[in-house]
Amino acid sequence: MGCCTGRCTLIFLCTLQLIAALERQVFDFLGYQWAPILANFLHIIIVILGLFGTIQYRPRYIVVYAIWTAVWVTWNIFIICFYLEVGGLSKDSELLTFNISRHQSWWSENGPGCVRKETPMAGLKGLDSHSYVSVIGCTLEYRYIEVMHSALQILVALVGFVYACYVVSVFTEEEDSFDFIGGFDPFPLYHVNEKPSNPLFKQTYLPA
């Protein structure tokens, strides 16, 4: 296969997905978003598996990758619905942190243009004497940043699914054509037919 084929395109898409997943994983770690962290970790493993299968001509691995892309699209649709508060979901809930903590997305306090306002609490001293009040001046609300992240993941995953199906079909056709010419058969059919004919030939001319 040449460099402009579906196989090379799928390799590029898997590499792009790895970069995007690693970037997202870093910010989810900073925000203590445990559910997305686990999902990203599994996504990285499956994408590496798909990348390996594409490079090594392993269609079964690519099929696993294609199935996962459908699951990954579903997960990111849920993330979009979560931050846009669709269907009774609330972006302020602790669903993504497994109700372990009240942390929100890292972008909620560190988005572009965001300024944190803190005020001292009466009667407290030391490092914990400040209480977080609000974030102002954000150029873009954090939930829209998360939605754009998920939308990008969906777009790349859908394109990856299409190319994965194409590459699997190409690999399967190549294997079938190779089998047809006896590429994987160490003992072709004519060898099998010749072996039993020799003893019969010898028995015909045995002396009485």
TrEMBL record:
It is a multi-pass membrane protein. It comes from the Eukaryota. Keywords: Cell membrane, Membrane, Signal, Transmembrane, Transmembrane helix. It is found in: Cell membrane. The keyword Transmembrane applies. The chain crosses the membrane at residues 34-55, 62-86, 151-171. Residues 1-21 form the signal peptide. The keyword Signal applies. InterPro entries: Na/K-Atpase_Interacting. Its main location: membrane. Belongs to the NKAIN family. This is Sodium/potassium-transporting ATPase subunit beta-1-interacting protein.
